[in-house]
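Justification of computing resources. Each target in the renewal requires a structure prediction run like the one illustrated here; the chain below, 352 residues long, is used simply to show the kind of job we budget for.
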Amino acid sequence: MRLRALFLASITIALPLSAAGHGPEAPIAQVEAVGMTVSDMDRAIDFYSRVLAFEKTSDREVLGEDFERLQGVFGARLRIVRMRLGDEEIELTEYLAPRGRPAPVDSRSNDLWFQHIAIIVSDMDAAYQRLREHKVQHSSPAPQRLPDWNPNAGGIEAFYFKDPDGRPLEILEFPEGKGDPKWRRLAVPGKLFLGIDHTAIAVSDTEDSLELYRDRLGLEVVGHSENYGPEQERLNNVFGARLRITALRAGAGPGVELLEYLAPGDGRPMPADERANDLIHWQTILTSPEARELAFELLAGGTPFVSPGVVEIDEPGYPFAEGFLVRDPDGHVLSVMKAVTPTGRPASLEEK
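Resulting structure tokens:
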């Protein structure tokens, strides 16, 4: 394995930013998967497959300088497993070395390290019963139906719970007329868990976040809502919760929801020393056909990098040729990757 990293610190020229939400011209082609760090891979696979009906699609161990630089963890040996539900995938990563820190036991939904995936179900009562049968840990006391006075969220049923590492997850059922119509098409008899609608992240300032997600990455704003009241408080298990919710989407894949807690304002910031092997770590995995050009733009805009630059990955069978990790204004990690070409080489090398 060899390392070829394009260090960005010396780049001083600012390239023009692409326009947001303009289809194939948007910098980000899709939200390719949602990644999370786990402490015990076999336990995680069992939970996501047996309880939530995900199917394992790949399982590999990787190590070496490429992955150390990409993830910002020296001496890393990783087991990476892909699991699919419907059209969407999650990426589970166990750090065999070095081990990271557990999540704080008192984590709450308004802490700024909060992130979850929203799994769509065809029948909330049946899905909740299945979770109870498997003795999952509750976050919400029970499924909550959001009130009809809220035009954008009324009738949605949702429930927060936790995976074996204490990671927050959500099941969600849309009423008729809300949500992507594909969920209606996928709701066939006997199929309870349908796919991932979005990943949601807690943010401190929606406008600051939109400057990155909408204006620089090109995700399109597709919805807004302001949610409050006893149902929302119980769903998030945060007393007095009042949320500004902004939904964004790329050209394909699950959406990204920004959750700004207008109240209460006591959510804790992302730890400054958070790393990819810590169990609060998530990565929203984005693909871009022009990862290097986008890296220049993000650097020029002051986006903090986890990777030292664009890292080219020389790993047989690995789906990405190159990429980099950056942080959003609140510290959430975005993995921007470029897929391999048919020859298995980065397009930048094909052109030489």
